[in-house]
Amino acid sequence: MGNLSSIYHVHAGEGERFKYLRRKRMLGVTSSGYDRDHDYHRKGIKSVGVDKLCDFSPYSDLCLCVVTWNMNGQVCYQDLEDMVARNNRKFDLLVLGLQEVPRKNISRRLQAALLDSHILLGKATMQSIHLYVFGPKDSDLFLKDINMDKRSIWGCGGIIRRKKGAVGIRINYKGIPMVFISCHLSAHAYNVGKRNSEYKSVLESLFSKKFNPYAAPPKIIVWLGDLNYRIQGIETHFARNLIKKDLHGQLTSNDQLLQEAERGEIFKGYSEGTITFKPTYKYDVGSSNYDTSYKVRVPSWTDRILFKTDEDINATLHSYESMDEIHSSDHKPVKAHICLKFTKVPAIDG
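^ Inositol polyphosphate-related phosphatase domain-containing protein, sequence as received from the core. Prediction below:
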């Protein structure tokens, strides 16, 4: 099959399949067009090192600050504001994914924290799962299109509404089509197969009802959230001793997400920053001490940020870290700073 972006006319009997393939391409599911064959068929997540020197504009076409945080149904406004406002790196867009969000006006607090520099461009919410995109105050000059969608997997009510599923924002900013997906997958170490299925379900369904088959495919897709993959096959006290000795890098071989990606089950063609920070879950709330409850859970990197780029975009990772100073949840936030630059001049839409 040829490049789908060159197809403008289809017979009526082929229309639905055309739309189906284009939508899958939009989320990076197929290997035609957007997915380069050598990336799509490569098993495993590519580990990307950090270049601490950020070549912010004019050397980059776009810089993204991406943050994910499971709030555990709690709200500490100071933590929330510190997380987004205290940033020692310049960025164009702030992409913030939140899970287990309490019934509070989080959006208003975020806008107040960023009032001097950024405005809200779009948000997608589904009960306790939120996704926000903020841009500079002159963003109207660069924003061409933005769409939101959501996919519910399952969930329950209650005070913190622990909804499972994903919300997505598709945006064209500065001529760069992008897709951001914030998700919260099923918990517990034994549910690895269920998480794989949920990931695939989101890919198959997100933007399916709002899909424009003639829209340009994304140049970058970013997944962020509480993916809930755990460290397995290791006893909790042994894991904690390694962490205490700053040897937690040895635990990545026991990380379910990396194992399942290596098997070709999830995140084909995606990249992730090399994990150098400590596992982000589970902490005693109000501290940096790992779980002291009767469950004594094995610390795990449940909170992740992964990305995939088109062949004419170079993505440079300038940070990938946890925010250990945040104590109001049993999760630590994770932040990535990604700068994008075209390898060739993009075509201008007519």
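The CA atoms of residues 148 and 169 lie 5 Å apart.
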